[in-house]
Amino acid sequence: PSHPWCYHDHCEYTQSEWSRLPNAYCGGKSQSPINIAKSSAVTEEKLGAFHFEKFDDKHVIEKIINTGHTVKCILKEGVEVSGGGLGHVFSTLQLHFHWGAHDSEGSEHTVDSKRYPMEMHIVNKRKDLTLEKALQTTDGLAVLGFFIEATSAKEKSRSSSEQGASLSDMDALKKLTSYLSAIKNISSEVNVTEEISIDDLLGSVNRESYYRYNGSLTTPSCNQAVVWTVFKESIKVDETLMMMFPNEIGYHNVFRSAQGLHGRTVYTTAA
Ligand code: GRE
Ligand code: ZN
């Protein structure tokens, strides 16, 4: 028995009905995702660099689970995120993906209404709070959101001839997607033996250029407990790897539509 909610299929609570789910917050006024309007973002000088602990650990992913709504990587303990104007130390719990059916959609956040083909969420919990308490605290969780899009053939030849910088992200996602065929069934999971670090997945993305706002989990129970960081630069991967999510996993379009801002401010780093 999985969840009574879904994105688009026929289920008890489809996306437009999440606000009626009992014991959930999906109808609140600080919901995620949102469309980020560049011209409305307020520059905040305090949004500095992050510090990442164990993001270079090659054995950080313990297992990969098909939850029926996403592909989730469970991480070992000791991975941490701080800095970035967060004001607390956060423990990294898991990372997961949102995707579409084609490369024209799939991300949850949009920037000036541009939707990317995929979005990766790294979910972190305040180290000083239990998960239960964090879910009831406005800054109890910090989620790092990264857009993923396909590298054009032109960019591919340029990166391999000039710097090769983005090749590591391709290799990392290739290793990760090689496990998808093993978790085709909902609720199945697979242990990870390949060496994949979070740094490898992020590749050469600039981690000092981002947007910041207060929002929620993008799935029920939609707790308004998330300090969101949405990075401006996208992770570039090979198109064929990206299409393995809809192709290998039996569902797609697992992204929530844009929610109202209701007076919230989106902050941005200076660059
Ligand atoms: C999700 O389910 O998509 C999710 C979480 C936790 C934080 C953010 C988020 O489970 O989008
Ligand atoms: Zn998510």
* Rg on CA atoms, Å: 18 Å
Globally, the shape reads globular
Task: Provide the helix percentage.
Answer: 10-25%
Strand content: 25-35%
**Distance, first to last CA:** 46 Å
- Alpha-beta content class: alpha+beta
Strand tally: 16
Ligands in the model, by name, code or SMILES, are: 2,6-dihydroxybenzoic acid, zinc ion
Q: Write down the overall mean pLDDT.
A: 93
- Quaternary structure state of the chains depicted: single chain
* Contiguous uncertain segments of 5+ residues: none
Protein model, in words:
With 271 residues, this protein is of the alpha+beta class. Helix content is 15%, strand content 28%. It contains six helices and 16 strands. Strands 2, 3, 4, 5, 6, 7, 10, 11, 12, 13, 14, 15 and 16 form a 13-stranded mixed beta sheet that branches. β4 and β5 (71-75) form a beta hairpin. It is globular, with a radius of gyration of 18 Å. The N and C termini lie far apart (46 Å). Bound molecules: 2,6-dihydroxybenzoic acid and zinc ion. The site of zinc ion has 4 residues, from β7.
In short:
With 271 residues, this protein is of the alpha+beta class. It has six helices and 16 strands. The N and C termini lie far apart (46 Å).
Write the layout of secondary structure elements.
Elements: E1 35-36, E2 42-43, E3 50-53, E4 61-66, E5 71-75, E6 80-83, E7 90-99, E8 110-111, E9 114-115, E10 118-126, H1 131-134, E11 141-150, H2 153-163, H3 167-177, E12 189-191, H4 198-202, E13 210-215, E14 226-231, E15 235-237, H5 239-242, H6 244-248, E16 267-268
Parallel strand pairs: 1-8, 2-16, 11-14, 11-15
Antiparallel strand pairs: 3-6, 4-5, 4-12, 5-7, 6-7, 7-10, 8-9, 10-11, 13-14, 13-16
2,6-dihydroxybenzoic acid binds next to β10.
